[in-house]
Amino acid sequence: MEMFDIRQPLSRHHLDQRFPSCLHVPAGVQETRIEPGCTAYGFVQQGQMLVSHAGLNQMLHAGMFFSIPGPALLSPFVGLVGIRQDYHGAPLYGGPIERLGRLKYIDGCSDSLLISPMIKGDPCLNYLYVPPHLHQTAHTHPSVRIGIIIEGEGYCLTEQERLELVAGKIFVLPADEIHSFHTEHSPLRIVIYHPDSDFGPTHEEHPMINRTLVDGVSLAGDNPYRTSKIAEYVAN
Q1: Could you tell me which of 22, 125, 20, 35 has the C-alpha nearest to residue 73?
Q2: How far apart are CA 183 and CA 47, in angstroms?
Q3: Which intervals hold domain AraC-type arabinose-binding/dimerisation (predicted)?
Q4: 59 touches 29 (CB < 8 A)
Q5: CB under 8 A, 24+ apart: contacts of 163-166
Q6: What pLDDT was estimated at residue 236?
Q7: Is 209 helix (H, G, I), strand (E, B) or coil?
Q8: DSSP string, 49-102
Q9: Which of 61, 66, 76, 81 is the most exposed place for a label (fewest CB within 10 A)?
Q10: CATH level 3 topology of 103-194
């Protein structure tokens, strides 16, 4: 696990072989250019960020999170940008983040899905809340994690070392690395980019089609009614 400071500009590439990802830390001095075919996920820790995308400008403020597909340009800001290459996501913005997560995680932690996978397998952005006086069970993840400590303090234990976690630090956790988060008197609040998922809607099952009934029967799954190809026009 590597640690970085949000005030030190840097870029790191090739962070996951299966799900190509890179880290950009603009540190308030560098623009971030999102290339076509890539999508940026991130969080504004301090100040403001101007997003230029699809001919429109959108101002994001401290405490907001985002998903922005390329081509796009982000003005210099202080925070985190995790870029998923070879993936075109949707422009989404949100915040502020609720203090407690909506979902039960492990050992008393909670989490929220800030930006969901558009389709099962797609990238996502998550929020993790670690309460005070908590010691996580050591565990791993099958893909890289890029996170920013947005509030609080604690530490992370890996098989090699103890790493201090404080607000304003960014970490890159390689796939399959054993680790655990720990707190003492302060909680930890963390925003984390995941380059993939095993959760989300599919063409066969999603809220719209699951709750569409013909003769009282849901059209989820295989059936002759489902659209065969997504297109702007349907051939007669």
Answers
A1: 35
A2: 27
A3: 133-190
A4: no
A5: 163/1, 163/3, 165/190
A6: 63
A7: helix
A8: EEEEETTEEEEEETT-EEEEESSEEE---EEEEEEETT-----EEE-PPPSS-S
A9: 61
A10: Jelly Rolls (2.60.120)
Q: Which residue has the tokens 């950009």?
A: 24
DSSP-assigned letters across all residues of 123-186: -EEEEEEE-TT-BPPPB--SS-EEEEEEEEEEEEEESS-EEEEETTEEEEE-TT--EEEE-SSS
> Which residue in 144, 164, 149 sits closest to 22, CA to CA?
144
Spans of all domains in the chain:
2-94, 103-194
Residue among 40, 9, 39, 14 nearest 25 (CA): 9
Question: Angle CA(180)–CA(186)–CA(190) in degrees, nearest 5?
Answer: 55
Print pLDDT tens along the chain (236 aa): 999 999 999 999 999 999 999 999 999 999 999 999 999 999 999 999 999 999 999 999 999 999 999 999 999 999 999 999 999 999 999 999 999 999 999 999 999 999 999 999 999 999 999 999 999 999 999 999 999 999 999 999 999 999 999 999 999 999 999 999 999 999 999 999 999 999 999 999 999 999 999 999 999 998 999 998 999 887 76
201, two tokens: 């809607």
Strand pairing category for 78-84 and 39-46 = antiparallel
Structure tokens at 21: 């990802």
Superfamily of domain 2-94: Jelly Rolls (2.60.120.10)
What number of CA atoms fall less than 13 Å from residue 1's CA on the CB side?
28
